[in-house]
Automatic annotation (TrEMBL):
Keywords: DNA-binding, Transcription, Transcription regulation. GO terms for molecular function: DNA binding; DNA-binding transcription factor activity. PROSITE patterns: HTH_GNTR. SUPFAM superfamilies: Chorismate lyase-like, Winged helix' DNA-binding domain. InterPro entries: Bact_HTH_transcr_reg, Chorismate_lyase_/UTRA_dom_sf, Tscrpt_reg_HTH_GntR, UTRA, WH-like_DNA-bd_sf, WH_DNA-bd_sf. This is GntR family transcriptional regulator. GO terms for biological process: negative regulation of DNA-templated transcription. The keyword DNA-binding applies. Residues 10-78 form the HTH gntR-type domain.
Length: 239
């Protein structure tokens, strides 16, 4: 599925709920803050009153808001502690990041086959792992990764149970000759939103990583979807 397809067309109440959730997560609305009325929310976001009600109800069900008849809606939840991911610009730094803070891994699926059509160069078999990475019980990214099956066979247990990049970099005889990553900004589809615990159409960062070995052969390909608030781009500028 392409990144544009992932973005999809989310329901309007999900868009509104995500905007309100971000105000809580960022501390803009502290616990005890009275939320604008449904009429005010409908006007602010240009939606029907029913849509605003659905958005508020979603956050009530998440425990972030408390709607009381006659006294309005107030914030009850606290900002979630979401892992902050700094964009790394070297392969060594990327591997070290995973070693410093190993993620909690939940596997969604495993299969075998060639790379997706857009990245396929030959008929090499790859092991595809789909997983969710979390820290402190809070999911921060969904990953679909492909490892050359011959490489995977060298350490299948470690690849299944640990962050893949440090395992790959420490493997004797598996030399990465070129590494490239691309990051774009988009929105979460329904499945991604469910795994990350965000509203459909919430902002996310799509990162594609490709590691090549001898002759440009793809050893590793990963499609990573990060929660929008988890990604931080910090670059020192040359003066």
């Amino acid at each position: 599925m392409s990144q544009n397809e992932r973005a999809g067309n989310a329901p309007k109440y999900g868009v509104v709920a995500n905007a309100l959730r971000q105000r809580i997560d960022r501390g803009q609305w502290a616990a005890g803050t009275r939320v604008p009325s449904l009429h005010e929310l409908a006007e602010e976001f240009g939606v029907a009153r029913l849509t605003a009600r659905q958005a508020v109800q979603l956050l009530v069900e998440e425990g972030l808001l408390d709607a009381r008849r006659g006294s309005g809606t107030v914030v009850t939840g606290q900002p979630r502690a979401v892992k902050n991911i700094q964009v790394q610009t070297t392969l060594q730094a990327l591997g070290a990041m995973y070693l410093r803070a190993p993620p909690e891994i939940r596997t969604l699926g495993e299969s075998r086959g060639p790379l997706p059509p857009a990245q396929r160069r030959d008929d090499t078999e790859y092991v595809c792992l789909q997983r969710v990475h979390s820290e402190g019980g809070v999911a921060y990214c969904v990953i679909t990764l492909y490892i050359d099956a011959a490489v995977f066979a060298l350490a299948p247990r470690r690849f299944r149970q640990q962050a893949v990049i440090p395992v790959l970099l420490a493997m004797p005889g598996c030399k990465v000759r070129r590494a490239h990553q691309t990051m774009t900004v988009g929105t979460a589809d329904t499945d991604v939103a469910r795994h990350l615990g965000v509203a459909p159409n919430a902002p996310v960062a799509f990162v594609e990583r490709v590691f090549e070995g001898e002759g440009g052969h793809v050893i590793y390909l990963a499609e990573v979807i990060y929660r929008g608030e988890a990604v931080r781009l910090e670059i020192d500028l040359t003066v």
